[in-house]
Amino acid sequence: MTVILLRHGRSTSNTAHTLAGRSVGVDLDERGAEQAATVVARIGELPVRAIVRSPLLRCERTVAPLAGALNLEPIVDERLTEVDYGAWTGRKIADLMKEPLWSVVQQQPSAAVFPDGEGLAQVQARAVAAVRGHDRALAEQHGTDVLWVACTHGDVIKAVLADALGVHLDGFQRITADPASMSVIRYTDVRPFVVHTNHTGGQLSAGLAAKPTQDAVVGGSTD
Q: Residues 201-211: pLDDT tens digits?
């Protein structure tokens, strides 16, 4: 099973440099709408069988062109929603950087719990459970080798990638997930394989054709 983790396009909150969180009505800006329109060409002829998205508007807008092109009805999953930043929601990033908790978020995110919100460890647990759950459900429905898209948020994507890489959550800030980027994880019976991270270029198909059939070999070759 292979999942394409698609971050929503650039939002009005991104350009305002505020922490949108779960604020209602945060939409894509003009650039974000353009990014959403290019997702169809970037996916190209890849056989996407399902689209799952966060319930927030900016994710709905991002997948709309792809859903229309593929004639798929996106599945809304609350577990893929943005981090509940609690009292931090809607505040300026520049102001949040002065808070003592900011350094915890950057240096030890596994210990970070947002005031009146949730902890980043909770975010990772729910997001990984969502991805794994949809993998199982789609396998039962379509068989193995299913490719699907999950449209969600930057910190959520970074948390799922950290899990797939076998990296402790405290290292997830080393991962980048830009607006409209795609990261690809192939889940197998052996382990997850991270195929792409933060892909923002043209067609995504490169690297998705060859599937790992055995454990990785030291040195990257069987010769």
A: 888 876 665 45
